[in-house]
Amino acid sequence: WRFKPVLQDGQPARVETTLWLRLHLDRSPEGATARLEYLGNSSYAQRMMQPRFPSDSLRDGSSGIVMLEVSHDADGRVTDLRVVASEASRQRDRKAFEVAAMQAAGAWVLKPQRINGVGVPARVRVPVVFHNFGRDPLPELPELPPSPVAAPLVEDGLLLLQFDPPAAEPATGA
Q1: Mean per-residue pLDDT for 36-62?
Q2: Does the first or last residue of the chain, that is N or C, have fewer Cβ atoms within 10 Å of its Cβ?
Q3: pLDDT value, residue 174
């Protein structure tokens, strides 16, 4: 692999970051080949509170996905949040998933990229998935435009999270 250096004041800078890659397995009659897809480099989770699965949505069997855009400062504290897109298997539950994702995200702390030891404020997109396994299928989000950037290293930041409903409590017999 070969990386283009980040320059700071015209000089190469030491950079600490996380690369996001997706491995694809392409199968053909001749065999299988693997290829990597570069998804970007980004901040990553340091401390993330799980959103509460909305109780009505859990009971109804609804699933949903909320794409958040999360801005953070040089220390990784969340400074701004917004919903970029959301879908739910039952549209009446869509707002509940958005509220649950936003409430949890406000308390997150991200580990920012560092240039020459200094944290870089950034903005990343975070898909928060509420999957009610065995019930409604998970909806898909529409194709989104590339995310705007707040730091020179973050081209299309993406953190992958999934929050599942809590496991059922075991029944106790008398």
Answers
A1: 77
A2: C
A3: 40
Q: What burial class does residue 81 get, using C-beta atoms within 10 Å of its C-beta: 0-12 exposed, 13-18 middle, 19+ buried?
A: middle
Total number of residues shown for the chain? 174
pLDDT of residue 96: 96
DSSP annotation of 146 reads P
Cα angle, residue 83 at apex, residues 72 and 120 outer, rounded to 5°: 15
The reply to whether the predicted model has a pTM over 0.85 is no
Give 150's Cβ-side CA count (13 Å radius): 20
**CA distance to 71, 85, 129, 146, per residue, from 106 (Å):** 10, 17, 17, 23
Dist CA 69 CA 154 (whole Å): 13
Question: Which of 66, 78, 65, 83 shows the shortest CA–CA distance to 123?
Answer: 78
pLDDT at 17 over 70: no
> Among positive and negative, which fits the CA dihedral 53, 56, 62, 66?
negative
